[in-house]
Specification:
about 240 residues; alpha/beta; Rossmann fold; 7-stranded mixed sheet; two-stranded antiparallel ribbon
Length: about 240
């Protein structure tokens, strides 16, 4: 029997709306917390790309509820956001249409707080198109892109090499590839035989070079609030690659 996709549940949609669109006050405890881990879907764009320069087409793989796609729309002429979850894509589309999304933040037990997600100020939803898709089996007519962005996706794919092998045909010569991964390889998502045998960065280099040149790496901490007193604090490995 097929295992249900957890990313289709209301719980995960609400959790990711908070992760993508919640304010610091809505995420952190009054006592504080790791504020430098907030805004991860924004920072994977602003800390890796020259957002002061205009770009053509961008592809956001594993876009979830769409925040990075909206950030890319500020300086890219066209953005395609793709995610495997119909529920995530539905939320992203509704935000892009100007709707205010009501969602719930779990406090503890049965206690929940009603919150609202809105389109970020300055985003250009007219430049963004969202669609459901499988990063391991992308449609053939996607075309090519000046920027491909995939954050916290690779170690959630059953066969990540299928995506890595497709990347050269997606990124234009001279284009930029942004990858971020917490390197948390888990059997729940990826069979162990498809894990890197050593460090993830070395594995990426072995499959991406020489088509892509590694320009730099950076640490990208992120924080996901599960309850009022339980958080996931993780550091994603960011890497910026230039297509030959």
């Amino acid at each position: 029997m097929a295992v249900p996709n957890p990313y289709e549940t209301r719980k995960l949609v609400d959790e990711y709306l908070l992760f993508h669109f919640g304010s610091p006050d809505e995420i952190l405890l009054p006592a504080g917390g790791p504020a430098d881990a907030l805004g991860f879907p924004v920072r994977t764009v602003t800390e890796t790309l020259d957002t002061a320069s205009k770009a053509g087409r961008a592809l956001d793989l594993g876009c979830a509820t769409g925040r990075s796609s909206f950030e890319l729309s500020r300086f890219c002429e066209e953005v395609i956001g793709i995610d495997f979850s119909d529920a995530f894509i539905d939320a992203a589309r509704r935000l892009g249409s100007g709707q205010t999304l009501e969602y719930e933040r779990l406090e503890e037990g049965h206690l929940r707080t009603r919150l609202f997600a809105v389109l970020p100020f300055g985003a250009r939803p007219d430049r963004v198109r969202f669609e459901t898709g499988d990063a391991m089996n992308l449609r053939d007519d996607l075309g090519t892109f000046d920027i491909v962005h995939a954050a916290n996706l690779l170690c959630r794919l059953p066969e990540p090499l299928r995506l890595l092998k497709r990347l050269p045909s997606l990124v234009n010569p001279g284009g930029t590839l942004i990858l971020a991964t917490p390197c948390t390889w888990l059997e729940d998502f990826t069979p162990p035989e498809n894990w890197p045998t050593g460090r993830t960065l070395d594995w990426l280099r072995s499959h991406l070079e020489p088509t892509f040149a590694l320009e730099r790496t950076l640490d990208l901490p992120f924080l996901i609030r599960e309850t009022a007193r339980k958080f996931q604090w993780t550091v994603s490995l960011g890497s910026v690659w230039k297509r030959a």
